[in-house]
TrEMBL record:
CDD domains: DEXHc_DHX15 (cd17973), SF2_C_RHA (cd18791). InterPro entries: AAA+_ATPase, DEAD-box_helicase_OB_fold, DEAD/DEAH_box_helicase_dom, DHX15_DEXHc, DNA/RNA_helicase_DEAH_CS, HA2_WH, Helicase-assoc_dom, Helicase_ATP-bd. Residues 719-754 are annotated as: Disordered. Signal peptide: none annotated. GO terms for cellular component: U2-type spliceosomal complex. It catalyses: ATP + H2O = ADP + phosphate + H(+). SMART domains: AAA (SM00382), DEXDc (SM00487), HA2 (SM00847), HELICc (SM00490). The keyword rRNA-binding does not apply. This is RNA helicase. The lineage of its organism: Eukaryota, Fungi, Dikarya, Basidiomycota, Agaricomycotina. It comes from Meripilus lineatus. Its EC number is 3.6.4.13.
Length: 754
DNA sequence: GCGGATATC
């Protein structure tokens, strides 16, 4: 690239001079690609470009360039299906650039991806293919990293969440001439919401073209969703279908159902290792603990067999893979398989992985896939307002995706540990979209900011349960983000600026009034990153001891603040995080988030304040938390457990909780349902604070009768007496000083059915 | 006794 010489082009030399906006032909484009000069950039094309172009020509999507341009010319919205290896993600956006000529029109072409890593790597690849440097004509935009140059970048890869955020400031998405949504079959929350917005926007912006790209064959659903006219057959959005290019994978089923899928998976690994030709194995399990346990068992089994007879079996490297592993640990999946023991059978590598290996990470060299048919999936129960992770059967689409992992480099085999009958008749076609499995409080706030008036009747691809939306609206009303007409309040507008859950956003916004915005900013940042506490299977004792040293007795929120501050104190010491069993990666990430949130606070003129007394500080923090998390309070039950407010659900403190003893009243960040109902990240509170800082929620006439209500009634009585005793003058003064405080802490009520 | 995966101005 360095040796490429600059040339001066007169308009006659512009390879795209004869191109008519959105009227180009495949022949014209082919010709421009084959030229001497870069069609988009005043420079000669490099040798590397030509070499890559030869490879690009082999991609299945290339053979359909003509068909693509015909469809693109005639339609505003196109649905495209292309399996792995079709080249759609890298080629289609380039095709669009030749038609849209965004560099001449002052527009951009956007292509969204569900994941950051994929966004970066595909942008890099396409920059190479177009013979430009990344971040110039071709760039990407992900959180914390904007690799674009305004005025120069005309092809932008971005995460779906990023485009959704952009839509909040520019609902017309006016910078874009074409928007391509990729990997739509994954049905992430952001993709689903974007589909709704774009469908709507397509009616207002007739010049905006939209391409929906999906890997699986559920295209008809999207064709129907984006159909023009009123549901007549002829009005379906047109479909472009591109074949994939992978190697064949032979699929095997069990004859009978397996009782223990972990055990069956391990047997399958050993069976392959003994009987099948060389090639790596990928075994899908559901979680960290299961995976570590399986790896341990597998090693023991192989060691046992090798001890008995070293010639009976080759060495087997067992590598665990899940997202919370550090990058160097994840790198191990790319190590070569172990060499054969002296004169014995060849060695083999087996990767035991969660779903990361199904979508996010591709591992070359896998020849055998073992699919027990399960994964952990998020489930939301709006009735009890709990998101939980449940081991559930995967969908057919998922099973096919898993099988495909065996055929990336050569023909492979997939062993499904369930019967063909189960596959055909029991498995769902597609995994349920995230929008049906999530708490939508955040999404509803975003939609309100986007100007969607009727959230229940929003045109979802799949509409969530009305109760889920009601729960979200209820929370937002209580928080004061929405008024009685479900309009965004000024507070709600501020909240929507933060990339945070509504409770957290509210806490952060009001924290300045509690003189602890410095601290809440840190706590909120820590709650926005993966867990900081590291607890390796081999060092649980030392890890727990280290955590105990960092814990603050009053609550886990304060402990998070403490860890962050101690980390910054020792940031020069490279081993501090390691010796204290905390994740440096999470802490750096928290620092990043903190910087970003601080910038938003500055913009909203929310001051960063603190107080010098540690006692006051710890109280202030927990009072501020109540103004956001008043619905997440629990009271200690006679049996030793806790009962949640209003719902009266029996929960236990999560084992990771660092509270000193079992305080009567606690506030918690999350309710999780794993082996039993737990509350996690818990702090002790004084019950009078509830009446003081969330008075409208703690209107006891709305509480169901029971032990919790009785306990609250006693507290309320004492609170009233105390309030009465406070001199009237002083009270007035306080109210006058902070008039906004009441508005923030005393939200609107909403009609709900409990 | 203890976390699937992903994302965010």
């Amino acid at each position: 690239m360095e040796s490429a010489e600059y040339i001066s082009l007169s308009s006659d030399d512009d390879p795209l001079a004869a191109f008519i906006h959105r009227r180009v032909t495949a022949a014209q484009v082919q010709h421009a690609m084959d030229g001497i000069n870069n069609p988009f950039f005043n420079r000669k094309l490099s040798q590397q470009y030509k070499k890559i172009l030869l490879a690009r020509r082999q991609l299945p999507v290339y053979a359909q360039m003509h068909e693509f341009y015909e469809l693109f010319k005639r339609n505003q919205i196109i649905v495209m299906v292309g399996e792995t290896g079709s080249g759609k993600t890298t080629q289609i956006p380039q095709f669009v650039c030749f038609a849209d000529l965004p560099h001449k029109k002052g527009k951009m072409v956007a292509c969204t991806q569900p994941r950051r890593v994929a966004t970066m790597s595909v942008a890099r690849r396409v920059a190479d293919e177009m013979d430009v440097s990344l971040g110039k004509q071709v760039g990407y935009s992900i959180r914390f990293e904007d690799m674009t140059q305004p005025g120069t970048t005309f092809l932008k890869y971005m995460t779906d969440g990023m485009l959704l955020r952009e839509a909040m400031t520019d609902p017309e998405l006016s910078r874009y001439s074409t928007i391509i949504l990729d990997e739509v079959h994954e049905r992430t929350l952001a993709t689903d919401i974007l589909m709704g917005l774009l469908k709507n926007l397509s009616r207002r912006r007739r010049d905006l073209k939209i391409i929906i790209m999906s890997a699986t064959l559920d295209a008809l659903k999207f064709q129907k969703y984006f159909s023009t006219g009123e549901g007549a057959q002829g009005s379906l959005a047109p479909l472009l279908k591109v074949p994939g290019r992978t190697h064949p994978v032979e699929v095997f089923y069990t004859k009978e159902a397996e009782l223990d899928y972990v055990e069956a998976g391990l047997r399958a690994v050993l069976m392959i290792h003994r009987a099948e030709p060389p090639g790596d194995i990928l075994l899908f399990l559901t979680g960290e603990e299961e995976i570590e346990g399986a790896c341990k068992k597998l090693k023991e089994e192989v060691d046992f067999l090798l001890n008995a007879d070293p010639r009976s079996i080759g060495p087997l490297a067992c590598i665990p893979l899940y997202s919370t592993l550090s990058p160097p640990q994840q790198q191990k999946i790319f190590d070569p398989p172990p060499p054969p023991s002296r004169g014995g059978p060849p060695g083999r590598k087996v990767i035991v992985s969660t779903n990361v290996a199904e979508t996010s990470l591709t591992i070359d060299g896998i020849v055998y896939v073992i699919d027990p048919g399960y994964s952990k999936q998020k489930v939301y129960n709006p009735r009890i307002r709990v998101e939980s992770l449940l081991v559930s059967p995967i969908s057919k689409a998922s099973a096919q995706q898993r099988a495909g992992r065996a055929g990336r480099t050569r023909p492979g085999k997939c062993f499904r540990l369930y019967t063909e009958d189960v596959f055909m008749n029991d498995l769902e076609e597609q995994t349920h979209p995230e929008v049906l499995r999530s708490n939508l409080a955040n999404t509803v706030l975003e939609l309100a900011k986007l100007g969607v008036r009727d959230l229940v009747r929003f045109d979802y691809v799949d509409a969530p349960a009305p109760e889920t939306i009601m729960r979200a609206l209820e929370l937002l009303h209580y928080l004061g983000a929405l008024d009685n007409q479900s309009n965004l309040t000024p507070l709600g507008k501020k909240m929507s600026q933060f990339p945070l859950d509504p409770q957290m956003a509210k806490t952060l916004i009001v924290s300045a009034e509690f003189k602890c915005s410095e601290e809440i900013l840190t706590i909120v940042s820590m709650l926005s990153v993966p867990p900081v506490w590291v607890r390796p299977v081999t060092a649980r004792g030392p890890a727990d001891a280290a955590k105990a040293r960092l814990d603050i007795p009053d609550g886990d929120h304060l402990s998070l603040l403490n860890v962050y501050d101690r980390f910054l104190e020792h940031i020069e010491e490279k081993t501090w995080a390691w010796t204290n069993f905390v994740s440096a990666r999470s802490l750096y990430q928290a620092r990043n988030v903190r910087t970003q949130l601080k910038a938003i606070m500055d913009r909203l003129k929310i001051p960063l304040v603190s107080t010098s007394s540690e006692h006051d500080r710890n109280d202030n923090i927990r009072k501020a938390l109540i103004s956001g998390y008043f619905m997440q309070v629990a009271h200690r039950d006679k049996g030793g457990g806790y009962l949640t407010m209003k719902d009266n659900q029996l929960v236990a403190l999560h084992p990771s909780c660092g509270l000193d003893g079992t305080p009567d009243w606690v506030i918690f960040n999350e309710f999780v349902l794993t082996t039993q109902p737990y509350i996690r990240t818990v702090s002790a509170i004084e019950p009078e604070w509830l009446f003081k800082h969330a008075p409208s929620y703690f209107d006891l006439s709305t509480f169901p009768n029971g032990a919790t209500k009785n306990a609250l009634e006693i507290v309320e009585e004492q609170f009233k007496i105390k309030e009465e005793a406070e001199p009237k003058e002083q009270k007035k003064k306080r109210n006058r000083k902070k008039p906004q405080k009441k508005a923030a802490g005393d939200p609107q009520k909403v009609e709900t059915q409990d």
